[in-house]
Structure formats: structure tokens, C-alpha cells
Design goal:
Number of strands: 0
Structural class: mainly alpha
Number of domains: 2
Oligomer: single chain
Number of helices: 3
Radius of gyration: 27 Å
Shape: elongated
Helix content: 40-55%
Length: 134
Amino acid sequence: MPENFRFPELPHLPISAPELFKPVGFQKWELWPGLGGFNYAVIARLKAGASPRQALAQLNVVETRIAREGDAHRGVKPGEFDLKATLRPLKTVILGPAQRALWVLMAAAGLVLLIICVNLANLMLVRNVGGPES
């Protein structure tokens, strides 16, 4: 990441601010077959032409395979649990419930700008109708 990159603050999520950015590459113990930890949150960009529905379907295929295999190393039997992936746009995660309020604020600012333009047009019209002596 560039030196000036700042990860967006997400106070309404259980995800804490990242402490480390690293390329996707895992240690040997992280690749040990099985379930492992569930502390991964990923921010990814969809491939050009791929829809979110397709990406979620592909993620859930992998999740289902992992759940079906179980984890003998950790004593979890095959089919004992179910895994599902979730996919949410980053914009929705960052804005959360404030998104609607921001749209209302933008509409209100547009309305104020429209009122100002109408008032200025009215003042210019009155000035021009008044004749050259005014």
C-alpha cells in the first residue's frame, strides 16, 4: 500500500483496524488442512465482468467443501457444521445506516442551491426590467 494509505474506520463492525497488510501468502501452519481460525476478513475487487452473485456462489462452493470434509486434526467430524460466506460492498460497510442520511443531506443542499439560483435570476430580472436609470 502507498505510504499515505489509511484504512477506513469501521466502528460499527466487529472488525478491528488492521495492524498489518501483507500479500496473500500463508505460513505453513496456516495451510494445514482443516478449518483453522475464522478471523479473516478480506477486501477484494471483483474481476472485470464478474457479478457479486457469481463471486458469492464460488465462495460458498469452497465453504461447503471445507464443511463437508470436516477437520480430523481438530476433532470436527465431516458435515457437523455449515459454513457460509458473506459478500458486502465496501461502500455499504463504511457508510452503513448513514447512507440514507447522506442522500437526504445532498438533496437538501441541492434544493438550497436551486433556491439561490432562482433568487439571483429574479434579482437580475427585476434590475433589467427597471430600466437604465436604476
